[in-house]
Design brief:
This protein is α/β, with parallel strands linked by helices. It has two domains: 1-112 and 311-381, Rossmann fold; 130-308, Up-down Bundle (Glutathione S-transferase Yfyf (Class Pi), Chain A, domain 2). The chain has eleven helices and 15 strands. Helix 9 links the parallel strand 12 (312-316) and strand 13. The two termini are 36 Å apart. Its main location: cytoplasm. ATP binds at residues 30-37. It holds the Pfam family SMC_N. Belongs to the RecF family.
């Protein structure tokens, strides 16, 4: 899968821009606050219909304008597909092949991206919410069923939490209605948990393979899925439903007092262990960064297995956060396999020696110029 063209209109600090990309590595070079990350954000938003930097869509609209638009041409094994997203006061409009999409779940998955930014190094040591978001975003791109189940689960969870909150403040107390909401939540939770379990098992296999290579075969990475029930020993939906029912019964009084749902995949987490040690709490910074890198690179192969297409990789100023060894491994992993977009103030000697003929864009104050290659310069000379 490749992004061959990108068009921006009043997106962030760009008035109008039209870029064409090569299948290999494309690099956006420039100093801070010039618009490099805005370009990566536009590609991310084109894929997922949301920004990775803000939850407020109007932040994407250039100051003084009424709307912003991002459009692109995707090249996959199915041919060329035009995609576009428009943000305005009326909301968000998504189109595939120039046709409006009434549901974002039918739009997401047309373009698959993996973003690796400095904050992703907190994936290992950060809060559980960071890892839950990671699962939801990455697996949601690969599996439409997961995306739809997640949306349904969040809706029922909101309804149940609202009812529990009213209950805790002395409002209407209908035990039958609460049990109906609980049954609906358990039905959706059991499906989601089993999908998460499968995703994490497959990700573990891919990430462990890469981790061994980066660590010179000295360390073994394992992912432990943490949920309300012992899902490691459960493989069928009915048994999981029974286990979840018991867990809800156990927490029923606390939920009514606290006014919130205490059981379910919205509270899940996963722990990364290296040689049996939880690296989030006891690992060195080097081990944490190696584990985060292995997870991100493991996603590339996993997404290919799930969708039949390699994703697009977005590296937002992450090379400067990695030492020479990890830079080398990252760049050798993506070589000739994944279309990659890199932002950086400048390219290190390591990067320049490993990246074959990158297409370089010079970004300054919302304007973009293509840097001439050495071959072009010689021809001009």
């Amino acid at each position: 899968m490749e992004l061959s063209e990108l068009t921006l209109s009043h997106f962030r600090n760009y008035d109008e821009a039209h870029l064409t990309f090569q299948p290999g590595v494309n690099v956006f070079l420039g100093q801070n606050a010039q618009g490099k990350t805005n370009l990566l954000e536009s590609i991310y938003a084109l894929a997922l219909a949301r920004s990775h930097r803000t939850k407020v869509d109007k932040d994407l609209i250039q100051w003084g304008q009424d709307q912003a638009r991002v459009a692109g041409i995707i090249v996959s094994r199915f041919g060329k597909t035009p995609l576009s997203l428009t943000w305005s006061k009326k909301g968000k409009q998504a189109r595939v092949n120039h046709l409006d999409q009434s549901r974002l779940s039918s739009y997401i998955g047309q373009l698959n991206v993996i973003l690796f930014a400095p904050e992703d190094l907190d994936l290992v040591k950060g809060a559980p919410a960071v890892r839950r978001r990671f699962i939801d975003i990455e697996f949601g791109q690969m599996n439409r069923t997961y995306l739809q189940l997640s949306a349904q689960y969040r809706k029922v969870l909101r309804d149940r939490n609202a009812y529990l909150k009213a209950w805790s403040f002395g409002g209407k107390k209908d035990a039958v209605f609460l049990s109906v909401l609980t049954e609906q939540l358990i039905e959706l939770a059991s499906k989601l948990i089993l999908l998460k379990k499968r995703f994490l098992t497959e990700l573990e296999q891919a990430a462990a393979r890469i981790h061994r290579q980066v660590a010179n075969q000295q360390e073994e990475l394992v992912i432990q899925y943490k949920t309300a029930v012992n899902v490691q020993e459960i493989s069928d939906e009915e048994t999981l439903k029974q286990a979840l029912t018991l867990a809800f019964e156990k927490h029923a009084d606390r939920e009514k007092k606290q006014g919130t749902t205490l059981v379910g995949p919205h509270r899940d987490d996963f722990v990364i262990e290296v040689n049996g040690v939880d690296v989030s709490n006891f690992g060195s910074q080097g081990q944490q960064r190696t584990a985060a890198l292995a997870l991100k690179l493991g996603e590339i192969d996993l997404m290919h297995e799930e969708t039949g297409e390699y994703p697009i990789l977005l590296l937002d100023d992450v090379l400067s956060e990695l030492d020479a060894s990890r830079q080398t491994h990252l760049l050798m992993t993506i070589e000739d396999k994944v279309q990659t977009f890199i932002t950086a103030p400048s390219l290190s000697e390591v990067a320049r020696s490993l990246i074959k003929e990158p297409k370089i864009f010079l970004v300054k104050d919302g304007t973009i110029q293509v840097e001439e290659s050495k071959e072009q310069e010689e021809n001009h000379g």
